[in-house]
Amino acid sequence: MTVESDNYLLSLTAYIHLNPMNAGLVHSPGEWEWSNYREWAGLRKKYLCDHAIVDAYFSRSEDYQRQVEAIAGDKHIAKYMLD
After folding, report:
1. What is the pLDDT of residues 41-55, one digit of tens each?
2. Which of 2, 11, 20, 79 has its CA 20 to 30 A from that of 72?
3. DSSP of 35-76, one letter per residue?
């Protein structure tokens, strides 16, 4: 599978970051410590991996956090995976 659009890429990252929550392992994506979501959302300063993609699309890490939280609140999360 190839990521061919910015919208799909951002939806894909949110989907991945929400997986632990959707599996019932945590109540919010920020609680899953083995994810890079905390860095991308500006909740942790130690970096597990490069988060330059967030900087390229969002002026602040908190904006990415708000996007993921909005998707998490949507009961039809699968629609974000369609381009």
Report:
1. 888 877 666 667 778
2. 2
3. SSHHHHTTS-SS-SS--HHHHHH-SSHHHHHHHHHHHHT-S-
